[in-house]
Fold this sequence. Notes:
Elements: H1 13-17, H2 34-46, H3 55-59, H4 63-70, E1 82-83, H5 99-111, H6 124-135, E2 146-149, H7 151-163, E3 169-174, H8 179-187, E4 190-197, E5 203-204, H9 206-212, E6 217-223, H10 235-248, E7 252-255, E8 280-285, E9 298-303, H11 311-321, H12 329-341, H13 344-365, E10 371-374, E11 381-386, H14 397-408, E12 410-411, E13 413-414, E14 423-427, H15 432-449, H16 453-466
Parallel strand pairs: 1-12, 3-4, 3-6, 6-7, 7-8
Antiparallel strand pairs: 2-9, 4-5, 8-9, 10-11, 11-14, 13-14
Helix pairs in contact: 5-12, 6-12, 7-8, 7-11, 13-15
Bound molecules: pyridoxal-5'-phosphate (PLP).
Residues 87, 151-153, 177, 223, 227, 255, 257, 285, 287, 293, 298 line the site of pyridoxal-5'-phosphate (PLP).
Amino acid sequence: MESTVTKASSIPFSMTNGFSSSPSPPISTEYDNNDSISESLKITESREWSIRASPKALATINPIRKIVETMNLTPNREKPFIPLSIGDPTLFGNFKPCDEILDAMLTTVNSSKFNGYQPASGNEEARKAVAEYCSSYGMNVEAKDIVLSSGCSHALDMAMAILATPGCNMLVPRPGFPLYKTLSATIGVQIKYYNLLPERNWQIDIDDLESKIDENTAAIIYNNPSNPCGSVFPENHIRQLLNVAERHHIPIIADEIYENIVFPGHEFHAIASLTDEVPVFHCSGTTKKFLIPGWRLGWIAINDKKDRFGIDIRTGLNSLSQRIIGPNSLIQGAIGRILTKTPKSFFDEIITNVHRNADHAFNRLRTMKGLKPIQPAGAFYIMVHIEMKNFPAFHHDLHLVETLVSEESVFCLPGACFEYPGYVRLVLAIDYEMLDEAMDRIESFTNRYFVNDQITDESNDLDIQMN
Ligand SMILES: Cc1ncc(COP(=O)(O)O)c(C=O)c1O
């Protein structure tokens, strides 16, 4: 059969790129040889349709989906479903962005000035506004240090990808946000977990973390305030972590998307504000604090007072941002106003409501048989330990969670989603009455299934004596 392939070298250069009318340089390709063209065509013509997903795509796993999809989750039709599982504060309609945030977006849309492409790493004015906002947390950054992204997930993706050298590993908290593992697959990073300690309000087990470092450790991923723990690290604890990172010369990827969602008596410290020595990618965005997760604006603030990242890190981040050309243009147009005009009272109200829910959930759960909640200090979550030995009717905690759904229509995410079986995570950014109703139902469930293990032990003893 006649070949219809046009030789690349026969196409004028001006037509291939549209920018130059200079004479075409010789472009050498494998198609220069007619024999090899027909050989390769013969091979492709004789092959069957066989379109496969790439191994990297198949290795990309979202642990939450992976676990939840294997579960039998059929709510009780008699009771309205209460999903305490989804970390989207807008889901129930009681946490909403304020008028100033909506006005900023409407003004941007009406201006018609932000319908076009923006620079890949973000519009200059928007990056300036984000840099000023980050400075309010004590970071020393300018517009040139900011890369805008499509939500914090994209910021984390780029921050991990830029440091992912072949064969490297990154340290990740356990329990922790499962996205870090999901992102690691496509960039070939091995994940090594370091423990958080429930008995110490989920502070990092610093010795454990240090023991996981080796010569291939490319970054420590750190999350504060924490999803799923709802913990907030005190300053001296953050300094302990920085001390380890400094001694071992390891940069930090700081996931601080819940920045400042902290309850009275606790304080948020941006880790980058506490160090001159350790380079930090601060990853955040408007998702949680401004209650606009769907608007998809995130950012990386490159904190590197001693220029340890080197020039190619910035160039590389810029190249990575060109893969999808930044977040949508409208949020870039609105962000300056959003960051400066949102009143403090808006944040205060969110914190008051989540704090009220957190206290209520904690105080109710701690009186329930077989449950041990750990009091949160911020973010939108509470972790609850289930004493499985007191619930012998269930083979494991996933079975208990399934039964809670089928009998009480209350769904909490199993700790296995966060590499932490034996716990469940409850979302607190929901309507108070709904939360209270969920508490009533969880209580009647635990009352129904709780078995006092001391009675079980005694009856075992009795059995033994009678035999
Ligand atoms: C700890 C943590 N990091 C990152 C993200 C992702 O945020 P975004 O929706 O802005 O991508 C979330 C979302 O739930 C989160 O909980």
